[in-house]
Amino acid sequence: MTGLIESPAAASAAPTEEEFKAPKYRKLFGADRGNIIFWVTIIVLAVWVLAPVIPTLIQALSDRPLYEAGGVFTLENFTKLFTEADFGIVILNTFLFAAMTTVLTLLIAVPMAIVVIRTNIPGRRIFGTSMQWPFFISSLILGFGWITMYGPAGFISVEAAKWFGDVPWDLYTIPGMAITEAVALSPIAYVFCANALRNADASLEGAAQTVGAGPFRILRSVVVPMLRPPIVYSAILVASMSIETLSIPLLYGQPVGITVFSTFLYKNGLQSINPDYGILGAASTLILLVTILLVAVQAKLLKDAKRFVSVRGKATRPRLLELGWIKWVAIFFISVYLIFGALIPLGGLVFRSFTTFFTPLANPFEFLTLANYERIFGFPVYVQSIQNSLVVAGVGAIVVSVIATVAVVVARRSSFRLRKLIEYLALAPQAMPGLIIGIGLFWAIALLPFGWSAVVQGTLGAIIIGFGLRALPSAYGSISPAVMQIGEELDNAARVSGADWLMTFWRILRKLLTPAFGAALILVFVTMLKEYSPAIFLGSAQSNIIGTTMLELWVQGNTGSVAALATIQIAITAAFVFVAGLLMRGKKENA
To answer: Model-level pTM?
Structure first.
């Protein structure tokens, strides 16, 4: 019994009740600082996301521009849209373009993902890495490259005409537009399908093999059906992006009079001397509703996604399937996509930047020059566009990644009663086309009180807001899985020790989320560097970026300068991704 009696020294050394008390944190305006962060987060997201939507809807239902007083409610804009603007043809063209692009993208990406991830083709790692690189190049640059090589006067087109008597393809058609856009979007669908294949349990394939199924039967009966969720998600995403994309329809369609949703907005908004803002608002509203409907269809199709779960606690390592001689056919088609779809157009564009003329009718090596780059770096306006792009991408990457990180932690690791709404707001911009964001924010900024409109409109700040809104869902989606992988027992341990929500985030979650935050920075930087469509309506002569400057130069016929700017953007992207990859690898090794 005496062993149970504490000595005076031990009693004096024991922690007192006062030491066990949770630390007190200063309250702001009488409120817990965690609650303040919760409410600030949801208010910032709500204002940011709804800013382009509400003015667009109001303009669509108003009989005059928003900046004019006395507007009244009307549906006349929608009537004029379908009766006076030839919008029926626009709808048909858009549907054909989106449908062809979606089908071609899936035909390219899904088989490639299956072959690269689940079969033993030679060079599968190289092919897997190469398939992702077109993602880092904007479709605008890819379109320039395709025209340079495969256009009516393109280098390869002229050579093909010598062999066949005429060029056997025509880029300036809806199928031509769809093929180019599919090449640009295939990496997105490839990544979704490849990730699903890497994470899937191979035991189902093993079970099929035990009953005598061959590799093709396994692919057809097991692997492909399990890919339904990423295929559906990719199809809806590609269809949405096809509806809102401007670059390829503008480069290919406008010269021959093919108009789709995006070029309709561009022509009736920016290029029109007296734009009809009512029709512009009605068309924008219609596109917004279509993209929202596509996202709703996606959610409906994936409602029973649990039926496709194959990753369990006892997952087995995938066994690569043997294709036999078919593997060489697969390698051929993958090589055709990479070489003719990406390498040759981009290589031709880079080579064009170092020549005065680029045509097979003359030896291009006789016209080598640095004049295109001298022109870019000799005019301050072009240099400023490069600097502006770096500022927008750099500042935007930091701001968007920080907001996305806070939003994910609040949505996933807090007791805030509106946390689900935060997640919906963060992901909502994926249903908002870039041109709609640009037009809507243009109207929203025009309505700012106290003279703020003149201060914000046409500045890099406005462009960062627009580009950042486009990149927000990607940043949120990049960080969210990392948060879900961190056990909540760490939060509970911090709370037991007296830490509030903010201290738990700052001392524990912040450090664990550093790799995911770095990955989001890279993704957002690249996304914002190659973005341009919102800037068409939000920018000015002083805030031009690389994308809008390339469009202006292309319209002026300065293809050499366009090629030089495109090459500079490619070099910046490659250098940033390479350096960031090295830094991220070093952090992982030190972790």
So the answer is: 0.78
